[in-house]
Amino acid sequence: MTDRDRNIRLEWLALALALAFAGLVVRLVYLHLLTDETIRQSVEDKGTIVKPILTGRGRILEGSKAGNIVALNVGMFDLCADPALLAKSNLTGQVASSLGTVLGVTSEELRGRLNHPEKRFAYVARQVPDDLVHQIMDLKTPGIFTRETTLRRYPQGGTMCHALGFSNLEGVGSAGVELIADKYLKGSEGFLESRLDGRRREMYGWRVQDIQPQEGADVYLTLDENVQYMVEMALDRAMEKHRARGAWAIVQRIRTGEILALANRPNFDLNEFRTARPEQMLNRAIGQVYEPGSTFKVVAIAGALNEGIITTNQIFNTENGRWSYMGKILRDYHPYSQLTVSDVFKKSSNIGTAKIAIQLGNERFYKYLKGFSIGHKTGVDLPGEEAGLLTPVEKWSGISVSRIAIGQGVAVTALQMLGVANAVANDGFLMKPYLIRRVVAKDGTVLYKGAPEVMGRPIRGDTAQKMRDLMARVTEPGGTGTKGAIEGYQVGGKTGSAQKPTAGGYSETDYMATFVGFLPVQNPEISIIVTVDEPQPFHTGGLVAAPIFKEIAEQAVRYLDISPSAQTGLAGP
Amino acid sequence: MARKNRKKNEQGFLFPVPLALTLLAVALLALFHICLKARADALGREIKALEARRVVLRDQLKKEEGEWSLLRSPARVEAALREHGLVMAWPRRDQIVRIICAPASGRARRLEPSQPLQYAQVQKVVMND
Questions:
Q1: Chain A residue with minimal CA distance to B43?
Q2: Which among B44, B70, B96 has the least Cβ separation from residue A155?
């Protein structure tokens, strides 16, 4: 081969290489500059992963020393399908049948979910446990895939259900503490943007954005699961014994306003909240208003004592149990001719209390009603609280003062009524009830701290002392609340047996039986209210609610290590 | 016309040494880069695996915490006591030993059952005064 031939060959080779390179450049320019934007974007998207990083909602912990978790998030999977792909592979029926067996769902139901060839996404089942997901994914069914998700779990099921509330499938608080503390609990999702390799694996080195999720804060409650358990067991037994329509109770620390237990019956399992009926989900302790009946006599008598217009030994004519005032008859459950103020309260005389309230007068009585926060929400940190019903004094009829004094024509929640008893026990100071003790972020920062808050002081300390003495007599022999007495402790309380209002009057058969009380009288620590809706066959607060109060209080004082009253001897059998 | 020196031509084209060194340096750098990239990718995969493991462990921890809370709940404790035939009862009067602090000696002494009852009282702080 001559030099010339070699040179020609080299030139051709160079030309071929140059042409090939030019071709590549042209293609490169075409792909980068002249290709349709949508095609370029689609190629780009296929190699990119953009996904939110899920975070768990914060935990909720109860307030006992154990500090047990009562709500937490656990990782789960949603089982998903590509119905279009299944239809294309002609696998819809087969997949529905095989998955139905594993998931415990009928194949017809699954076929209904999957038989949408026009869709590229459908849920097969949501929040499936890990073991089941692994079992299904081992089948390697085309068109079936999983998505990570979290599930809100309530380890103790129905315990504290009305106070805790629940969060929905999207992780949004929908009731109770879950709703009220949602902004603390929910945290914020993270975000990941990265590139995928040829096998569609995310490449760590190509991460564009990697924002870590911020987990929700933990909410610590004042509710004590042990006290709560005592209350719930007592209510369960009462519901069965009295064949009641409902029952609810609250236990509160008097000096601070902390709620130690709040329970309602009927209740529901928080893990199955979707199947609960509305009446099961109603937090009656704060969301149902009712005429308080005789328990409300505390307000009128405390007001009159505070104004100094009566003394505890002053005698009132109780008209042998039947008294006509402004053309309307008022009756006593047990007729008496004359009673001192102490006995009016102890025997729960309607006539005596009405006369005291009349002596107090509309304006002054109304002032005390407002002072005890009747007709206003207490501001407890729970959603769905009712304010109660209190007619403005300008709209009162002639007999209003006599009826409101005995708990008719006025409506309260159990929490409001407990607040009245608390104020008496707490030297006249009305404390704001609360059940969120603190909220702590994952890094330990305290985001919120619940603290005792005085809402007002409707009565003086000396009046409160007199009222405590009056209320202590209710549980002593001869009082209406003897079944609320506890050996070793001096208990202050008041019974209430309110007829339920019906259209145009009051029911003869349906009652609300209530007992509200506190103990020990000389150094009050806790207060408890128990309300039973339509108990049968007995319907009085003394017979129905007081024994439940006793059952709860007997256990609570021991658990909370409350010293017995020195004068009354040893606690226990 | 002077003739071409054929001896010189036989040596052919001599690759310039500086260029060769530059190319070698570039090649070495490229190799080094590839090694580093491979190492970074391997570390990335390791980090990803650890991240996934952390998520799994965190979930597992949460499940265990939930289970532990459930086991310690009063309902479960009561059920366990029942299951094992254990009954808890409040002590009878004669089973209680009451102790008071004698002011003289500063030591605790036992009260006879006939003596009036005394209880230790906790100093209470009245928050609202």
A1: A204
A2: B70
Confirm or reject contact between A229 and chain B (CB < 8 A): yes
Whether A429 contacts chain B with CB within 8 A: yes
Neighbour count for residue A192 (Cβ, 10 Å): 17
**A313: nearest Cα among A182, A438, A470:** A470
Contacts of B45 in chain A (CB under 8 A): 204
pLDDT band of B8, cuts 50, 70, 90: low
Specify which residues A219 forms β-bridges with: A60, A439
Beta bridge partners of A486: A489
A572 contact B CB<8A: yes
pLDDT digit string (tens) for A112-156? 888 888 888 888 888 887 788 888 888 888 888 888 888 899 999
Q: pLDDT class for A182, splitting at 50, 70, 90?
A: very high
A396 Cβ neighbours under 8 A, 6+ residues apart? A362, A366, A404
Residues 6-35 of B with CB under 8 A from A: none
Question: Nearest C-alpha of chain B: how many angstroms from A255?
Answer: 7
For β-strands A259-265 and A202-203, DSSP reports them as unpaired
B46-to-A204, A401, B39 alpha-carbon distances in Å: 9, 78, 10
Write out the two tokens for B24. 């070698």
Inter-chain residue contact B128 with A69, CB threshold 8 Å: no
β-pair partners for A315: A340
Residue whose C-alpha is closest to residue A153's, from A167, A174, A133: A167
Tell which residue, A291, A264, A520, A511, has the closest CA to residue A384.
Answer: A264
Report CB contact under 8 Å: B62, A523: no
Average model confidence (pLDDT) across chain A: 90
Q: What is the pTM of this model?
A: 0.81
Question: What are the structural domains, with CATH classification, of chain A?
Answer: 74-103+119-152 (3.90.1310.10), 225-559 (3.40.710.10)
**Contact call for B93 and A572, based on CB within 8 A:** yes
In angstroms, the separation between the Cα of residue B104 and the nearest Cα of chain A is 23
Position B113 confidence tier, pLDDT thresholds 50, 70, 90: low
A196 touches chain B (CB under 8 A): no
Which residues in chain A touch residue B90, judged by CB atoms under 8 angstroms apart? Answer: 558, 572-573
Going by C-alpha positions, the residue among A383, A365, A362, A361 that lies closest to residue A374 is: A365
pLDDT tens-digit readout, A215-249: 899 999 999 999 999 999 999 999 999 999 999 99
> Are the C-beta atoms of A247 and A235 separated by less than 8 Å?
yes
Q: How far is CA A367 from the centre of its chain?
A: 32
Judged by a CB distance cut-off of 8 A, whether residue A236 touches chain B is no
Q: Does A75 touch chain B (CB under 8 A)?
A: yes
